[in-house]
Amino acid sequence: MRVVIDRISKTYVDRHGHAVPALADVSATIETEEFVALLGPSGCGKSTLLNLVAGLLEPTAGTVYFDGEARPGRPTTAMVFQEFALFPWRTVQKNVELGLEEAGVAPAERAREARRFIELTGLAGFEAKYPHQLSGGMRQRVGIARALAVDPAVLLMDEPFSALDAQTRQLMQEELLAIWERTRQTILYVTHNIHEAVYLADRVLVLSRRPGRVLAEIAIELPRPRTEAMIGDRAFVRAVEHIWSLIKDQAQAALRE
To answer: Please, are residues 3 and 154 in contact by the beta-carbon 8 Å criterion?
Structure first.
């Protein structure tokens, strides 16, 4: 399913009653089965845009719509958050079943579906564990499995690996790429890490400082499946340098503000 972001603007009102523009006239399209990364300097409205796509916020102007036929009972979007957002009193199995339970799926079917995505995310054998018994990377896998289990048309990910250490983050990036290869899930992925965006995505949308506008849409010219060895490829380095050249001035201007 395609996601069409059509001239979206979002303005907040602060506690003093002043208007604070977060996004201004943003337009973009995420194609079916495409992996798109969204990045920009701090405060550029990345997470705001993701929440608008998820329907968690209402735009001040413009619209988001989904182009394609959704299967009955299938949610349009599911979100993987930066924080793990797991229920500590529920096991891995029960956390992954949560969305299916809320959708009214019968117990036997939701248990079966949850086990399928537990296996897909490398959590087999940990079904009876509680979140406090898991590493950070494993807890984030539970969040990904829970989102995938409801079979969303579009998976939204808000800096899901930013709280992890560098080694775990690299491993989780590889896990996510392997999952994408198997599912071909449409993904919109927010990150502040340029290397991560280039490594994961088919295309990178770069936002300006606040209010966020689309500075550039950059196609990543790396073949799939992606491998860690590609980090040294000329195409990888060129894309990273191009994106940094766009963001550097924006980040410096944001700091001055």
So the answer is: yes
